[in-house]
């Protein structure tokens, strides 16, 4: 290893952010945290500042930033506290930053991740919403500015590892069929409601939706996993990351989450990446790539796992998956509309304003209401995002009486 890697961690107080800091803390000789960022959790960010002594700490929220600045001053720490969305872009593109962990949740991650790409950074991409909203634009910027893209999403990290080693090397996606790849098999756990009787889905609570059987994650992605919208977003993510035709991406339900995804080749070979479901594995892989470092993850014991099961996704149970395929096929602004409608619908479900089956209903309504437009520039994406959010709020208002939240009896 030649020199220390200077990191910006976007979304450091979240689930991926915390796992990243856990891996980083195991290798103080390899990694230095230059900037940490969060939305408004100043307490957690302050603790991270004490431990990792970054040069910058950014909070989106002004009041939270003021509180953090006070604590930093009282503790005599040499950390510069910044505030607002522009500061997120600034710390993603600083000349001294080598790599940016893009782990903000949702559409809010788009601009700082794009800023990192424009600055030609090594991007460790957890924020799949960037590729869902603006896949073509983002991949073009990555190529034009010679940025390096390494997937953190466990499935995409697994696919990256199972593809030919030079497939994604540097900054360009390879030629899918010329590489001898037939299909990408994207595994999905099926989430907490895989076996819940359909008649009971109307009553499931946010707490139940967030209790994922295998992974501990933030609330938004946990709900996305329970509706399988997460897998839908991941299909779109795989399409852009790996230059994969839509029909060559197949979702396979695999409840144990031990196989994190597979690549099927034309000669009949199928390569998979396996491991315990712990995000520190893909994080360590991307941080050290092409080297390997200790991640603190318990070694996989296949004898303990004993059984691996596979099944087709149940489309009637998980309409969000089909909606995502539809949006990807429609192209243009449709995936950005899908993403925004989903964010608003998931927030409404978490607030108990709509029921669980209300989530796909809202998204379907919004997709039907808004015409698909071409994407020529980032503004086309941002306008579609704003229009979809407004339409989703309207749909929630309209659907609320028939889709209201019913507590379990
Ligand atoms: P989380 O909710 O636990 O954390 C989100 C982070 O983003 C927090 O630090 C929060 O402060 C910050 N944030 C939220 N809104 C913001 C805003 N408007 N501006 C600036 N910062 C903001 O989420 P997570 O589970 O860590 O997921 C982060 C991203 O990684 C998501 O895109 C998710 O899809 C992806 N991902 C997560 C996992 C996982 O296991 N958690 C796995 C694969 C992919
Ligand atoms: Mg995933």
Overview of this structure, please?
By secondary structure, this protein is α/β, with parallel strands linked by helices. The chain has 2 domains: 5-152, Rossmann fold (3-Layer(aba) Sandwich), CATH 3.40.50; 181-403, RNA polymerase sigma factor, region 2, helix turn helix motif (Rna Polymerase Sigma Factor, Chain: A), CATH 1.10.1740. It is built from 16 helices and 11 strands. It has helices at residues 15-25, 42-52, 62-74, 85-93, 110-118, 128-144, 154-162, 206-210, 219-227, 229-241, 280-288, 302-305, 319-330, 334-350, 358-369, 378-403; strands at residues 5-10, 31-38, 56-59, 80-83, 99-102, 122-125, 148-151, 181-188, 249-253, 259-265, 270-274. The strands form 2 sheets. The protein has a 7-stranded parallel β-sheet, with helices on both faces. The chain has a 4-stranded mixed β-sheet with strand order 9-8-10-11, covered by helices on one side. Strand 5, helix 5 and strand 6 form a beta-alpha-beta unit. The longest helix has 26 residues, at 378-403. The chain is globular. The mean pLDDT is 95. The structure holds nicotinamide-adenine-dinucleotide and magnesium ion.
């Amino acid at each position: 290893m030649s020199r220390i890697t200077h990191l910006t961690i976007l979304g450091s107080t979240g689930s991926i952010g915390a796992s990243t800091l856990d891996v980083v803390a195991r290798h103080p000789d390899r990694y230095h945290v230059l900037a940490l960022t969060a939305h408004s959790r100043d307490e957690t960010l302050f603790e991270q500042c004490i431990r990792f002594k970054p040069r910058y700490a950014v909070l989106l929220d002004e009041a939270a930033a003021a509180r953090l600045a006070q604590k930093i001053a009282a503790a005599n720490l040499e950390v510069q506290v910044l505030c607002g969305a522009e500061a997120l872009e600034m710390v993603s593109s600083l000349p001294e930053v080598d790599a940016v962990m893009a782990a903000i949740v949702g559409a809010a991650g788009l601009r700082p991740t794009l800023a990192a790409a424009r600055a030609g950074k090594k991007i460790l991409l957890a924020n799949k919403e960037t590729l869902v909203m603006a896949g073509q634009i983002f991949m073009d910027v990555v190529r034009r500015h010679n940025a390096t893209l390494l997937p953190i999403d466990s499935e995409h990290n697994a696919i990256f590892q199972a593809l030919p080693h030079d497939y994604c090397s540097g900054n360009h996606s390879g030629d899918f069929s010329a590489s001898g790849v037939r299909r990408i098999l994207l595994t999905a756990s099926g989430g907490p409601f895989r076996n819940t009787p359909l008649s009971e889905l109307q009553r499931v609570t946010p707490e139940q939706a967030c209790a994922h059987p295998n992974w501990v994650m933030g609330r938004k992605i946990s709900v996305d996993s329970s509706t399988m919208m997460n897998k839908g977003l991941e299909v779109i993510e795989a399409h852009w990351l790996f230059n994969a035709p839509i029909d060559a991406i197949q979702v396979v339900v695999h409840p144990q989450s031990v196989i994190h995804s597979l690549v099927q080749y034309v000669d009949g070979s199928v390569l998979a990446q396996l491991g315990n479901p712990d995000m520190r594995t893909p994080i360590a892989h991307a941080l050290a790539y092409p080297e390997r470092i200790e991640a603190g993850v318990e070694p996989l014991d296949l004898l303990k796992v004993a059984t691996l099961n596979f099944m087709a996704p149940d489309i009637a149970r998980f309409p969000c998956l089909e909606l995502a395929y539809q949006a990807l096929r429609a192209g243009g602004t449709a995936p950005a509309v899908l993403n925004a409608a989903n964010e608003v619908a998931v927030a409404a479900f978490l607030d108990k304003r709509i029921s669980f089956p209300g989530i796909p209903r809202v998204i379907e309504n919004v997709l039907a209401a808004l015409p698909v437009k071409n994407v020529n520039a980032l503004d086309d994406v941002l306008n579609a995002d704003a229009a979809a959010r407004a339409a989703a709020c309207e749909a929630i208002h309209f659907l609320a009486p028939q889709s209201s939240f019913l507590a379990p009896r």
